Amino acid sequence: MPRPLRDYALLADGERGALTGPDGDVVWLCVPGWDDPAVFSELIGGAGTFTVRPECSWNVSGGAYDEGSLIWTARWTMPDAVVECREALAAPAEPHRVVLLRRIRAVAGAARMTVRLTVRGEYGSAPAPVLRRAGEGLWEGARGPLRVRLRGPDGAWVAADGEWGALVDVTPGGVYDLVLEVGEGPLGEPVDAESAWRRTEGFWAGAVPSCSGLTAARDVRQAYAVLTGLTSPRTGAMVAAATTSLPERAEGDRDYDYRYAWLRDQCYAGQAVFAHGPHPLADAAVRVVTERVLTDGPGLRPAYRTDGSRVPAERRLPLCGYPGATDRIGNHAGDQFQLDTFGEVLQLLAAAARDGRLPADGVRAAVVAGKALEECWDRPDAGLWELEPAWWTHSRLAAVTGLRGAAREIGGVEADRWNALAETVLRETRRRCLHSSGRWQRSATDTGPDAALLRPLASPYWPGPRAVAVATREAVARDLAVDGFVYRFRQGDGPLGELEGAFLLGGFQMASTCLAHGRTAEAGRWFERTRAAAGQAGLFAEEYDVRGRQLRGNLPQAFVHALLLESAVRLDGAAG
After folding, report:
1. pLDDT score at 465
2. How many CB atoms lie within 10 A of CB 532?
3. What is the pLDDT of residues 304-342, one digit of tens each?
4. d(Cα 33, Cα 29) in Å, to the nearest integer?
């Protein structure tokens, strides 16, 4: 049975991600890469799962990550025993083989654990490979290009439909290892559990900085871990989320595939990390956007597959879907024009230059992005919220802050040109989009406030005037916030929250904007309220149902974790 999204934990190695639930089932995993077909898809109504759970159904489940990692330990408390299952995707990742490690340990008392495995490719529509004994404690099977190997107990049963199952008895202090390998093509030598665990622990110890002294240091380290887990070590591209088709609104036809790399989202992550200090995640962001800008120039797409290829067109899957949702793969946003992406690219490259980490190709990419803005800044675009093309204010202000940041930090012969263009864009935006009350409005034709406007107003490259920025922030806080949570914009005449959840990106951005305006205590309140919207594992989705206290949308949402990191760093800077 599906569980609320807040109950799931993420296992990820940068090349793919798995979701595991409180009942011990891995309900989502795509192989070999992020947007390849799932082999475990029960999360969205498909088939295939890998389950480890107590045979005793009278239990209470919980769990936690090893701090600063995506190594998850599930825990079950029963009347006479306590059992844990430590699990992770082995890291560093291999591009064509996923290795899922699960280590069962009896903390107190003895218990019997049920283990079941069914690998079903093509989102559950392909028959399962039938596993056969291939040696002591080793099972192997194949179906088409899909190869499966499991290190597990000899005394197992295999059903005709490919389901594999076993019972494992664990005694106090006892440990039992399960190692699942899935890939396309030959799997190579079997993985040794102890060696794989040592490598995985070493990987996470080296990937996540200590963050000691920072506000909410544990959550910031978890944000680093999530961003690392969502970033391909081969290409450097970061996917927006690990999943597809988790609903933003039940029966609202708002369920999308986020298993692709949005350049804007990765720019947010790179800028957040640069605000803290040099780190491979920031360098990867610079490398990815530089490659894409130099390759595509003015034709830059908002999103790509992690290998840089085009996002496929949307299509439906014949599954029942997560409750309240339909299933779709692909994303139409890959073909949109989103002007603000160019502005965020320039701000990222400016941050790299400020820290002395912008290579020569990055300077060339900044020149290309600046020329693209010259050509298209007046063109209607889909904007941050990926709506119908319009003259969105946020997109123009993002271009302004990006151009000013590039002029200040990168400089060179283009600096005067960038500054002049920023002034031109700002002047025209002021003429079209400045509300009569003295604040920015959503677009040239929509007079309402918009939480998207908070981001450029918090930028260190915002040109002013401050009074307009303050009036805009106050309008968002007054008209688009309920109980300390920020919504995108008003939809219809009903109450906020009727048609969609609060956008957690907006809450953290509100905190940063308050800091830019010298309101440190208020920033802390927005930060802490938004931080409270995490699930049980500390993961954030894109939206939060304030009334129902539920996560909404795909999981975990990378840019929300990035903005938590950035807000925490800025809070500490303001306090210092």
Report:
1. 81
2. 12
3. 999 999 999 999 999 999 998 989 999 999 999 999 999
4. 9
* Nearest alpha-carbon partner for 138 in 74, 187, 203: 187
b (16+ CB within 10 A) / e for 283-314: bbbbbbbbbbbeeeeeebbbbbbbeeeebeee
pLDDT digits (tens, 9 = 90+) for 93-149: 999 999 999 999 999 999 999 999 999 999 999 999 999 999 999 999 999 999 999
% of the chain surpassing 70 pLDDT = 99
Beta bridge partners of 141: 148
Q: Which candidate, 249, 225, 141, 121, places its Cα nearest to that of 547?
A: 249
- The pLDDT tens digits for 60-77 are 999 999 999 999 999 999
The token pair that represents 30 in the structure block: 């795509």
| Cis? peptide before 556, omega within 30° of 0 | yes
Chain position carrying tokens 């007054």: 478
Contact by Cβ (8 Å): 89, 13: yes
Tokens of 33: 């890469």
Taking the CA of residue 62 as centre, how many other CA atoms within 13 Å lie in the half-sphere pointing to its CB? 5
Task: Convert the pLDDT of each residue in 257-274 to its tens digit.
Answer: 999 999 999 999 999 999
Q: How far is CA 280 from CA 228, 271, 274, 344, in A?
A: 9, 12, 10, 19
- Alpha carbon of 203 to those of 103, 314, 329, 330: distances in Å? 18, 35, 31, 31
Q: Would you say residue 251 has pLDDT above 70?
A: no
Q: Is the pTM of this model over 0.70?
A: yes
465 HSE (CA, 13 A, CB side): 8
493 — pLDDT class (breaks 50, 70, 90): confident
Q: Please give the helix or strand (H or E) that residue 399 lies within, else none.
A: helix 393-409
Element (H, E) at 342: helix 340-354
Query: Which class for 386: exposed (0-12), middle (13-18), buried (19 or more C-beta within 10 A)?
Result: middle
For residues 85-113, b (16+ Cβ closer than 10 Å) or e, as one string?
Answer: bbbbbbbebbebbbbbbbbbbbeeeebeb
CA–centroid distance for 391 within its chain: 28
The owner of tokens 């300390």 is 484
What pLDDT, on the 0 to 100 scale, is given for residue 173?
86
Residue 310 in tokens? 């085009």
Residue 395 CB contacts under 8 Å (≥ 6 apart), including other chains: 338, 339, 340, 343, 381, 383, 384
- What per-residue confidence (pLDDT) applies to 396? 98
* Alpha-carbon span 536 to 3, nearest angstrom: 12
Is residue 191 within 8 A of residue 160, CB to CB? The reply is no
Cα separation of 266 and 258, whole Å? Answer: 13
Residue 274 vs residues 35, 271, 286, 352, 356: alpha-carbon distances, Å:
28, 5, 11, 7, 11
The secondary structure of 245-271, three-state, reads CCCCCCCCCCCCECCCEEHHHHHHHHH
